[in-house]
Specification:
single chain; alpha+beta; Cytochrome Bc1 Complex, Chain A, domain 1; 6-stranded mixed sheet; 14% strand; extended
Amino acid sequence: MKGTMKLTTLSLTTIAILSFAVAVLAQQPQATPPPPAAPRTVQFPKPVEKILPNGLRVVVVQRSEMPLISSQLLIKSGGEVDPADLSGNADMTSALLSKGTTTRSATQIAEAIEALGGLINSGARWDSSVVSVDVMSSRIGPAMEILADVVRNPAFKDEEIDRLRRQYLNNLKVSLGQPGAIARFAAARLVYRDAPYGHPLAGTPESLPRIKREDIVKLHGMFYRPDNAILVIGGDITPENGFALAQKYLGDWPPHPGDRHAGRRTGSGARRAHWN
């Protein structure tokens, strides 16, 4: 019995030593690197573009590997168009698009998108504002109808504005308790001073309470226009079908609505002067 136990112990010790040696050798770099693999060609899908009669630029990128489509409407104006005393206005305007239209409440929009198995998002950047939907290719029609509705017919209800303002103020309160965020705010102010990029994109504790519904409606009227927008559709869709969808849901979007003439300029050249 003792001899058997000694033999077992010796075997286990040998196995442990061999395992350790293998692990050490595995960690040592190869003296000669493996030969490179054969080069592979990369095929990038080619975007196809068209400009609709109302000025909307449409870009379709076909990739049919999966039955999914992502559609993104980009407005070529973002936080840089905020007036000096209303920083955060562009970001709030974009975020409110999916919070209700003249025909749908925020809950109805969320339920409709969920029924399609899709996603809808909106938000502003410094030089653009974006609304996007992601959905299966078989359901892109209803999803595009919702995207067009939230862009063209936002309700901007007072209760949604107040709710979003409280959310932004709470987020700022948290950010102002973090040294890194404070440093970023201070650095932007130091570098850009009173220029558009000198204020936080989501506003300040002083500017957010000043933003009223009429400010949001005014910004939307000035910049949310087809001649200041790009629609990008990518995924399992042909350029012909993509252009047809754009024409169906956004082709009658007027570039110059009668009540939106004041201070208009086309494209990314729009700046704070529009508010004067």
